[in-house]
Amino acid sequence: MKKLLIVVDMQNDFITGSLGSAQAELIVPKVKEKIEAYRNNGWDVLFTRDTHQDNYLNTQEGALLPVVHCVEGTEGHAISEALLVAGSEVFDKPHFGSLELAKKVAQGGYDEVELCGLCTDICVVSNAIILKAELPETRITVDAGCSAGVSEESHNAALLTMKMCQVNIIGE
Fold it and tell me: Is the separation of the CB atoms in 149 and 113 below 8 Å?
């Protein structure tokens, strides 16, 4: 079986930086274990990185979420040193969900794609549903225990939304 783990936006700004949270900090060791399990089984691991520019506050997202974060080239943009494995592929995405990521994954011929990371209720749910639309016969899974949302309520709402869209949820 060919499997892929997508570690979504486990970046410093979302863990301890400008949009960091205690929930995000708590999942770091669990995500690390999951990455190691995938690597030990010879499966692929891909990291996504929320990527903004200096003009972030002048964008639609910046107007609606006026907290500068994940600006390319800053420490906040970097994936947590606790997680990044040397030689890992990193996919920069300028938006919540990425059609380009889905196309890239589709070319990989995976039997299962698993996602975890931040934030369940924004980037994880967006990418999971885009992947399900691009790959309707591929098993798409989200590990709830290795993901965190803006709030517990919105995390749970996103999990329910993904279940309704035939995304497999584990780790609840």
Answer: no
Burial environment of residue 156 by CB neighbours within 10 A (0 to 12, 13 to 18, 19 or more): middle
The dihedrals phi and psi of 150, each to the nearest 5 degrees, come to -65, -40
- How far apart (Å, rounded) are the C-alpha atoms in residues 141 and 62? 30
Q: 9 is written with which tokens?
A: 């936006």
- In 3-state terms, what secondary structure has residue 133? helix
Closest CA to 113 of 49, 161, 43: 43
Question: At 118, which helix (H) or strand (E)?
Answer: strand 112-118
Q: Could you tell me the CA-to-CA distances from 136 to 18, 92, 130, 147 in Å, in that order? A: 36, 24, 10, 23
Q: Under a CB-based contact definition with an 8 Å cutoff, are residues 43 and 6 in contact?
A: no
- To the nearest 5 percent, what fractions of the chain are helix, strand and coil? 40, 25, 35
Buried b (16+ CB within 10 A) or exposed e, 105-128: beeeebeebbbbbbbbbbbbbbbb
Token pair, residue 59, equals 């964008």
pLDDT in tens, 104-151: 999 999 999 999 999 999 999 999 999 999 999 999 999 999 999 999
CB of 32 within 8 A of CB of 142?
Answer: no
Q: Is 159 exposed, middle or buried (0-12, 13-18, 19+ CB in 10 A)?
A: buried
